[in-house]
Amino acid sequence: MGELNHECGVAAVYHAAGPTVSTLAPISGDPNSVTRMIPRMLLDMQNRGQLAAGMSSFHPGRTALLKTHKEVGTVAEAFRLNHKAKFEAIMRGQDGLAAIGHVRYATCGGADRSYAQPFEREHGRMAKWFAFAFNGQLANYQELKQELLDQGDYHLKRDTDTEILMHLLSHELQGEGLETDWQGVFSRLADRLDGAYNIVLLSAKGDLIVARDPLGFRPLCIAENGPLFAAASESSPLANLGFQNIRSLEPGTMVIANRSGVRIERFAASPRRAHCFFEWIYFANVASTLDDRSVYLSRATLGEELARLEDVPLDPETIVVPVPDTAKAAADAMAFALGVRSVEGLMRNRYVGRTFIEGTADRAAKARLKYTPLPEVLAGKRVLLVEDSIVRSTTMRALVHEIRDRGGAREIHLRVACPPIIAPCFYGIDMSRRDELFATKFLNSPDGRISLEDQDRMAKELGADSLRYLPVEAIARAVSMSSDQLCRACITGQYPSAAGQKLYQIDIAGGSQPKGAGGKRAYEMAAASTPRSRT
Asked: Apex CA 411: angle with CA 311 and CA 366, to 5°?
């Protein structure tokens, strides 16, 4: 759904020094050209963030051992992909044996360049000079922030957990010698962090670190080709570069790549998992495989689940229409199971610029710019409109109106390949307040379930003829993973971490809160009521 946005994607490459050069190097025989893979990897993860993009690279022969390039905008804008000479100039400046990259969507912090990642912390000692990028969100951000400020000599330039994480990393590196014990650094960090965090870090000594949090909220994939190692938030960027044997990094583990080789170490215990189910049903590229589960097959299974629930009479004038693009796999599978046609009656306007859309007055206007209904497909039809999720409902309300008014549909039956969203996310998805959510206004059941009568009232509110959600149990079946391995907090109100559960209880008790980063009001109230240890 266009109303829902994600917190970022990360990428990393490392080429070991030596006589052998990976056949995947962009410039044949030149190991320093592997950094040119980063913009391509980020382009393949543009779905994870369009606000800013950047990279940092390491080259032992440069005065600036670490060098960072980042800009606000899409990957194409940040790296000048449509201007060959300017792109080449950027890439020549970024040549090296290792690099990290990042695409950003902000769930907290501002939209200016200073918030773009990677963040680089310069230092005279190479072991303390590093750049890093971060995918996720810390649920105990406000508490960590207050701990720093309570020391009296910290000044924070930005309202973002990325800056907090930078200071925590710097603190942990203070006691390190010439050879950094990265496993120890991240083990100590894990004791303090609550929430979702995938981290890629590059030091001025040429060490590359790739770490996934102990609960495994966000996906993180790795692969090797001879002396070349690479990592990305999804598998598709690695596959598109030619890597094989792509696999997921286990939660609570890290990759350390340096002159000693490439090795995987455990830095934190991982007694349970909490993979975000939204990765499979919405965020990830449909071509990706995450934690051994295909995104495409998961979405197709969601469509089959919808078909089993269908109770609308079917006739030759009944069609299934997906909301582009993430609902297409579910819609096609649903239509096949029902024996009706799946057609593209709603076209996405792919060439309307991001900035132009963001400059419009409201979500309804944005929906009209982004989607065009086709009367020649929709007119007089009973439409089963398939969407991956409904969060705030403004976009869906506008789409229903457009399909009926401009498209001429006779009936519109909404089918949502997800259960109702009834709780905020404190782990990196842009739905930070309970009172923002459409479904919460219709809750009558203490366990969060919405009855058929409730769904009928919701359909009327949206201007549709009917509305059906998937049950909570369908998600685990679709992802082929047990429910205790998934984070389903936004559809159950049960959070997998202590800070997340606490923020939710504060949100419920406090009612309406001012809009902010991950429930900023809740963060502040949680910090005020939690005893703090000093750093």
From this structure: 115
Whole-model pTM: value is 0.91
Rounded to whole angstroms, how far apart are CA atoms 54 and 69? 5
Q: For tokens 């993180």, name the residue.
A: 220
The pLDDT of residue 447 is 62
What is the rounded CA–CA span in Å between residue 13 and residue 262? 12
Residue 419 carries which DSSP code?
Answer: -
Residues whose CB falls within 8 Å of the CB of residue 179, separated by 6 or more in sequence, listed in order: none
Catalytic residues: 8
β-strand partners of 322:
386
Reported as type and span, the H/E element at residue 503 is: helix 498-510
What is the CA 173 to chain-centroid distance, rounded? 28
Q: Cα-atom radius of gyration of the chain, to the nearest Å?
A: 23
Torsion angles phi and psi, residue 81, rounded to 5? -65, -25
Angstrom distances, CA of residue 153 to CA of 40, 65, 156, 168: 41, 29, 10, 14
Distance CA 84, CA 105 (A): 26
Q: How confident is the model at residue 512 (pLDDT cuts 50, 70, 90)?
A: very low
Bridge-based pairing of strands 228-232 and 9-15 is: antiparallel
Tokens of 424: 């905020």
pLDDT band per the 50, 70, 90 thresholds, residue 394: confident
pLDDT in tens, 429-487: 877 688 889 999 898 766 667 889 999 999 999 999 999 999 999 999 999 999 999 99
